[in-house]
Design a protein that fits this description.
95 residues; mainly beta; Ribosomal Protein L25, Chain P; Ribosomal_uL5_bac-type; Ribosomal_L25_dom; ribosomal protein; 5S rRNA binding; Large ribosomal subunit protein bL25
Length: 95
């Protein structure tokens, strides 16, 4: 199954801006990989909360539409809230 997430490039980085994004219902994330510059992104929480519950989300290649350009990635790590059903941060690697 293929998954597609709409995302935007994130210009502000740091703890304060990430907290503001989470409070607004967004998820900060990063895409990194060998030989490429890391890209900080942000997307809506509702876009990932349902698809991350599927088992093949962690093993399949995902498509992130980043500012109109499609990027193939794989989920590397995900940070969740301690007791709320919230995703706090996601690390992706270039596929």
């Amino acid at each position: 199954m293929s998954y597609t997430i709409q995302a935007q490039t994130r210009t502000e980085v740091g703890k304060g801006s990430s907290r503001r994004l989470r409070h607004a219902g967004k998820v900060p994330a990063v895409i990194y990989g060998a030989g490429k510059e890391p890209v900080s992104i942000v997307f809506d929480h509702k876009d990932i909360i349902n698809i991350q519950a599927n088992e093949d989300f962690y093993t399949s290649t995902l498509t992130i539409v980043l500012d109109g350009k499609e990027v193939s990635v794989r989920a590397q790590a995900m940070q969740r809230h301690v007791f709320k059903p919230l995703v706090e941060h996601v690390d992706f690697t270039f596929a």
